[in-house]
Structure formats: C-alpha cells, structure tokens
Amino acid sequence: MKVVLADYGAGNLRSVVSALRRAGAAPEITIDPSAVREAPLAIIAGVGHVASAARGLAAVGLDDALRERVSLGRPVLGICLGMQILFEESEEGGAGLGLLAGPVRRLRARRIPHMGWNTLQAARETALLAGVDGQDVYFAHSFAAVPSDPGLAAATVDHDGAVVAAVESGPLAGVQFHPERSGATGARVLENALAWSRSV
Which residues are catalytic (predicted)? Predict the structure, then answer.
C-alpha cells in the first residue's frame, strides 16, 4: 500500500519510513501536492514547532492538498507534531490546519516535556487503537491538543492529569506518541492505521 509523508522541511522522517515498511506499506516522502492529495494514505509526522511546520506545508502547497483530501474523505494520519497541526491555534505560536476544532496547549504538569513511556487508556473503541488499550507507548512533547469535542479523543494517558494521546474522526486520525519508537505496540498501531485507511 502506497503511503505518502508530507515533507514540511523539518523533523527526521526516516525512522517513520522504516517503521511503515515493516508494517507492510510502501512509504514515500514528498513535497508534491498531487501525491499528497491522491495517495491512499497521507501522513504528517515529525517533531518541531506548529508554526514552522505549517509554514513549511504552505510553502509548497501541501496545506491545501491536505485540506482537499480531507474534504474528499481521504484519510490523513498525524503523528506527534502531525497530530497537533490537525487542530487550530497553538499556545506554542501559530495556527494549525484547522481540520479539527480545538487549541493546542502547553502541558500543565510538573515534568515538561512529557518524555518516555506511558500507558494508553482507551476512551472508546476505535480502529486505530484496536488491541493496544493498556499498552505502553513512547512520548516526547511539551504541547498537546485539547479537542473542543471531548468525544474526538480515542485514548488518553495520565501525566499529572489526562492528556489526549490519540484522536479519530472520519478520515482524520492522530497519535501524540511516536509509534516508530514504541516497539511492538507501535507496530500494531501502524498496521491498524493501514487497515483503517482502507476502510474510511
């Protein structure tokens, strides 16, 4: 299955590419809007700053390509920063794509960043997280999405309070953790993502 990763000019995507290959995908990193618009699955992945990532997407027309594919019901998966950029304004500075309603806020916790392993707590049954409730996954972030509709949350983790760890809504899904760094559980999530994208 062909998967494209939208290249916004920052972040190391090679580990995500390797993990997708192990999951059975044929991944490609691209700045081509038509490839991002038409592929069976588009992924926004990486680390960095919402504003700079949004500028990077806009500079090559990937922001509009992503919005268009979502309007057509084609699946998009956000990973870490890629999940945050699906939302609206970030307290880190700058606007996301606005595909999901709600802000991105700095974590209200004693330990920032939220770094290391934490246990997923499913908020509802979803295709993306099938079979991984209660499993540990790897996080590295200081900001997190706060959906306007709490029902968007597919899973949370406890980090001095509940933090949204995954969302799923129609053709949009996102994980705040790094599946490519999360061992067998992360591999299962990526396999689930491929299956989910075929069913959207």
Answer: 80, 178, 180
